[in-house]
Amino acid sequence: MAERVTVDAEQRTVLGKKSSQLRRAGIIPAVVYGQSEPLHIQMHRTPLRRALRQAGSNELIDINVGGKKLTVLAREIQQHPTRGDVLHVDFFEVNMRETIIAEISLVMVGEPADELRELGQVTQILHGVEVECLPGDLVSEIEFDISHLSSPDDIVYVHEIQLPEGLSLITDPEATVTSFDYFREEEEEEEEEEDLLFATAADDVEVIGRGRDEEDEEFEDEE
Question: What's residue 57's pLDDT?
């Protein structure tokens, strides 16, 4: 098992709108909830961003604060709408002996049969499944292989995906994960129709233009 991500923190006394003072100093406010009363903490921006990048939302993080270790999941990360800077983080403290519910990303791997690729493409339509497990059994993603698909009628269902040990499925096992999209031959026909319409419209403009020229000549003759 990979080494757990760890980050140091301090208890926070600056709350509310005054938290902007912390951000200007490179310190990010956060809160830990879940097992006891909410604990307001603060962390330096760089190590926090590194921890969030490594752990994402489904890997455990150990926060060291006041000589105590809290094992948490990042549940809500508030970011600046344009710069993307982390503004605030909500952490959920877990009990390693109690199950939790989490959504795990699905990652499609492999290539379908050659004859299938000639007809169209396999599209992933379900990108995550909900599971129940102990915090220590969490994974960041689950891969599923599509190399066995050989017909447009072949579909991957949730129950066909092999879950890692310790994970219990909550999502409907009959939910479809993939679909098949044929290459559309009519796209070329549509382009040809658009070209024809454009050519027709151009001809109309030329006819109108000639008509106006003739009218101008007649008017000049009358003068």
Answer: 83
